[in-house]
Amino acid sequence: MPITWELGEPIAIRTLHRGDEPVTVEIGRPRPYMESDDCFCPFRISGTDLLEEGYAVGVDAVQALTLTLARIGDVLAASGDGYTFLGGEDLGFPRSSG
Q1: What is the pLDDT along the chain (98 residues), one digit of tens a residue?
Q2: Which of 40, 48, 51 is nearest to 77 (CA)?
Q3: The overall pTM is greater than 0.90
């Protein structure tokens, strides 16, 4: 069963660019996942349109945040090249796959 979530007040925001278009990555606060000891961490990637939003689940808040950062990296890589951060190609997000 999917969970209902809202990003809430972001704990971190990074502005990337794709050409001249700004792309905003927002990361929400990790919080309890359903009725378990697990945690989930929401994120949203948006430009002129919503590009992706979702969350990752981990055994605790640290793992949920780490997995969310990797998911963001994977989403950006899968959507194509052309993103930059501070003028460079290193966006600062890890990837879970090569």
Answers
A1: 455 578 889 999 999 999 999 999 999 999 998 888 899 999 999 987 778 899 999 999 999 999 999 999 999 998 887 899 999 999 999 998 75
A2: 51
A3: no
